Every structure is written in C-alpha cells, then in structure tokens.
Amino acid sequence: MSLSNRLIIFDTTLRDGEQSPGASMTREEKLRIAKQLERLKVDVIEAGFAAASQGDFESIKAIASHVRESTICSLSRANDRDIARAAEALAPAERKRIHTFIATSPLHMQMKLRMEPEQVLEQARLAVRYARNHTDDIEFSPEDGSRSEEDFLCRVLEGVIAEGATTINFPDTVGYAVPEMFGATIKRLRERIPNSDKAVWSVHCHNDLGLAVANSLAGVMIGGARQIECTINGLGERAGNTALEEVVMALRTRQAYYNLTVGIDTSQIVAASKMVSQITGFAVQPNKAVVGANAFAHASGIHQDGILKARETYEIMRAEDVGWTANKIVLGKLSGRNAFKQRLQELGIEMDSEAEVNAAFGRFKELADRKSEIFDEDIMALVADEQVAQDNEYYRFVSLAQRSETGETPTAKVVFSMDGKEYSCDGQGDGPVDAMVNAIESQAKSGAELVLFSINAISTGTQSQGEVTMRLSHAGRIVNGVGADPDIVVASAKAYLSGLNKLHSKTERVNPQAAQG
Fold it and tell me: Out of 3.40.50.720, 1.10.3720.10, 3.30.160.270, 3.40.630.30, which CATH number does the structure's domain 389-504 have?
C-alpha cells in the first residue's frame, strides 16, 4: 500500500493498558471507555484478548455490539483456538479486526515458546491463513520485534503478508529501542521485504526508557509506518505505552513538520483521560503532558506576563483544543434538572433511561447541599461512583461515623450492606482510615491486602471532593477500588468496598500476563 499522509490511531487502552496491575475493568467500565474512544474518533479500538477469560470475551462482544464508528479488534495468539474465540467475540461488529502475534526474538523463542525458528515461521503463516476465514482485516505482530534477528523477521513478515495480513505491527515489547535505530529498522524491513507494500505498517512502543512517543514518531517519519498503537494517559504494564494524547498533539502542533493528519477529535482528549483515570484508579501526574492539571498552568511572573499579552508566547497548544474548559464551575444547588441533564450530555455521560437521570440528579442535589460549587469533575465522579455501585452490588456503603483525637485510639462505626443484608460494625486502628478498614473487615473477612492507598483532590479548594484509590490484592488478583466524597474517610470506605466488590465479582478478569506487549 502506498504511503499516504493519513495516520491510523489504534488505541489499546482496553487491552494492553489493562495489563497494568490493578487496572482490570468490568464489562460495563470497558464499554463506557469504548464509547468515549468512539467519541474521540479513534480508528481502531483493541477491545481486549478474547481467549484470556470469559469476562474479556463478553466485554469485546458488548463493545462490538454498541460501537459502530471505530473498527473493533481482538488480540489472539497464533493458534486456531484463540483466533476462533476472537472471531466469535467480534461477530456483532460492523468493522472487525483480528490481531494475532507470536514471539520472534531468539530469547523468546527459546525460553518462552520452546520452539525452533522454522516452527515459529510456520505457525505465524498458518495463523494468518486461518484468521482470513473470519475477516479480511488481519494484523500480525512479531512479539519482541526490536530484539529479533532481522533476516528472520524478513522471512516471517514476508510470509504472513503473503497469507493475507493487511497490517504489520512492529512492537518494541520491552521498551528497548531508541528512536533513530527503531525507525531505521522498520525502513530496512520495508525495503527488504518484496511484498511490504501490500500492508500498512504499524508501531507499538513501550515506555521503559521514556522513549515510547519518540520511538513511535521515528517509526512513522523514518520507517514509514502509518499506524501508531497507543493508550490513553500512556496506561500500560511496567512503565506504560505510547500516550495517545502526546502523539496526537505532537502531530497536530507540528503539522508543518510531520505533514500527517489524524481523524481524532482532540476536544475529547481530556474527557477520555479523566474517565480512564477514574475507572482504573491510576491518577494522572500534574505535570503530565497535555492532560496533566499543570499542563497549561503558568506560575512564573515572566510567563504570566507573556501569556496575558499573547498566549502563544508560552503556549504551543490551546487548552480548549484538548478539552480543558476555562469555566469549570457549572452548577449549584439551585440548578434544575434540565441544566444538569444538559451538562451530562456536554461531558459525554450517557444515561440509559430517565430513571437513571433522575437518580443521578438526586445524588447531585445531595452533593450540592454539602458543597457550594459543583465542578465538572464532581459530576463525573458522582456518576462513576454510582455506576460502579450498580455494576457490583454485593457490597454497598451506607454510612460511617468516626472519632479521631490526639492521644486517643481512633474508632469507626461503618454501616454497609453485604449481599443485600445490612451490617453495623465497629473498629479501632492507628488512624481513622485504619479503623474504618478494620470495622469492615470484622464482618467481611475478605483476607485482602491493601497494597496502595492514594488520595487526590477532584477540584480546587478545601471543599473539594477527595477521590481515593485503594489497590487490593488477594489470591493472585490485584484490583483498584475508587471512591469519592467530600469526607476523605467516607471516600476511603467507598473505595475499599469498591475493591472488595471487584474481588468478589466472578466475571472480573485476571490480568493476562500471557498477552503480547
């Protein structure tokens, strides 16, 4: 396929991003993110790894049934069972892609696959041939490509293109590459492989050395790739993946240099970032490019003076172009239902029925009685909090009372429901949060270990809601529970119960460590 100036954006937040320990999502959470990715106008959404679990299979099927504007993709290993499972999950999709892979580096072939190179070559070809029975859109990845031998790569990639692979993805699975070498390798492969022009070339980079975005752009500019695989907020296992918001805004801001176009609606970037952060519990660092809270903040007097005179003196992008709004205070306790419903639509929050809108409005009014200024972030948090509760009903927060005084042992009384039955429990601890957890555990007896506890202010000021993330581990599973409330201890209780719900859920998947990076 001849090179064009159109770059395909392939988002793998729901697959590779989910491989971050604790980032596993329910079907409903994945569907919410997929709908936001559709609003973002992502070209391809890798919805998951169908063969990894029944939960992942159902998530892909749900996304394939509801998302119509993006191509829906499932990952599969290079075997008939995985490919058939992917095809079944993707059946409802209007546009579908099967993404199959096999390791090609000497280290992976010897130590992980226990296969000879000729066996790997044959299995790769057979996998693509079989996948063609289910769809014409086939992507192939040589796992650990950046550490594979070039001669062998040429044979494998020529073979899979001959079998019908329409996209060749070159992954830097372990984040080992550096930009110039990475781009040059892809260029040589494309020059050496006789049928390379029959496929779109793609890059998939990890951020172990902080070079994922740079490597991806080098793969495009030097190597001639025309697809970038990325995730919202750079989410992903280890140090993460190429950040969608960074590559897209680099291409847009330096359009004269790259001379490439993307179909992304950049005004949806911040909304996507916030949604992924809230659902996964992975907070965005303040100085994160494009979507960090400080990305468009100016503290220096010289910078402030320049911005007031002409924004372009210190800003190379406009905050509103990526979805930041100058007027963040939108509603108060006197606001009506129609204004609230309109704001939900503006924030891209979909409700399935008027009953859900009414319930959300009731929670909004309750919050407005406690907090005079309601921000966009508050609305997103209260809706997310309730949707999590609806998705997982086994544990549900009811009320909390706690006492903490210098020189005295903190105590807490927590009322919560478990499997529809209400319990009132007392606990003591080193602090109010510890006392609250001990109170819940006196009845829940989950055996979970708390491995991470973090608090973030949702908005500004001392009235801000606190958003608490509690990462729990039990029996090899790691999940994130998230809760929000103006009272930090209440937010912590909601987060802890949210985590227990995910551990209890039978459909919640275990992170697929067998998956390709």
Answer: 3.30.160.270
